[in-house]
Amino acid sequence: MIALRCLCVGGLLPLLGACYSYMPIEVAAVRPGASVRARVSPPAANRLAPLLHVADARVITGTLIDSVSDGVLVEVPTIVPGEVGSTFETLHQRVSIARSDLVEFETRKIDRFRTGVIVGAAAIAASVLVVRALNGDAGRDRPPPGGGTDLLRPVRR
């Protein structure tokens, strides 16, 4: 029962990613360290795909390192096969993207409405679970139906 409750509350965790959305922004307005998403031209995607170990690099998500007059420097997490068995390692590759190759540039912003809905739903679910746990029938043990030897009367002859 507890595992089922944890699963129901834990089922909300994947929705927490919905608390953010990407908003288009000018490259000059973004500060270094911001989480960004860049859509690049097909020639730039072909150039970046082998560096990032992906088949399609038209959309790059990472952290802005620097913004210069001719382009941007973005640190992108890359998953590569590890040295042992079937393990994988996450590396951070810095890639330079020319402004002429940028089709769209976006930054991640918190979505207050989605966040409020998810936090409210989690609070209601937690409240229901707490009330049910506190109002349970603990301490009201009922004997099982049927009788044991305690309920038998001695037979007189």
Provide a descriptive summary of the structure in words:
It is a single chain. With 157 residues, this protein is an alpha+beta fold. It has a domain at 22-110. The protein contains three helices and six strands, in the order αββαββββα. β4 (71-81) and β5 (88-98) form a beta hairpin. It starts with a helix and ends in a 23-residue tail after the last helix. Mean pLDDT is 80; it is low at 1-9.
Keyphrases for this structure?
alpha+beta; six-stranded antiparallel beta sheet; disordered N terminus; single chain; 27% helix; 33% strand; 157 residues
The rounded distance between the terminal residues' Cα atoms is 52 Å
SS field, number of helical segments: 3
Strand % is 25-35%
Largest sheet: 6 strands, antiparallel
Got a strand count?
Answer: 6
Detail the poorly predicted runs.
1-9
What percentage of residues falls in helices of 4 or more residues?
25-40%
Radius of gyration: 29 Å
Q: Outline, from the CA principal axes?
A: elongated
